[in-house]
Specification:
alpha+beta
Length: about 120
């Protein structure tokens, strides 16, 4: 299996055996509640998606781990995100990749991870 992580601007694409299986948009915005400690080296996962036909095959974890490694190499210190509280699959993936819950607002968990 050939896995390639492509980056264009703030969007990462996971390509497996020549097929786009998912992607994520990483950057700076106010979608996730800002913390006093947030700096230019802190980024937000603004979107994370795996194609329906590729779910349950471990591609989400591959994508997230590759993005974490790439962002760490670029000097990013923390990643933050928001996820619906009933999205147990995503919550478990994020926890498995080192994210912790940092707060709760209106059916959303806020999570973060040091890189």
């Amino acid at each position: 299996m050939s896995e390639i992580l492509l980056k264009r601007n703030d969007y990462y694409s996971l390509i497996v055996d020549g097929v786009h299986v998912g992607g994520t948009w990483i950057g700076h915005n106010n979608f996730v509640e800002p913390k006093e400690s947030m700096s230019e080296n802190d980024k937000v996962v603004m979107m994370f998606s795996i194609g329906e036909q590729f779910k349950g095959k471990g591609y989400g974890k591959i994508l997230l781990e590759k993005v974490i490694e790439t962002e760490k190499d670029k000097g990013t210190k923390t990643l933050r995100l928001a996820v619906l509280t009933d999205n147990e699959i995503a919550i478990n993936l994020y926890k498995e990749c080192g994210f912790v819950i940092d707060g709760y607002v209106r059916e959303m968990y806020y999570m973060w991870r040091e890189l």
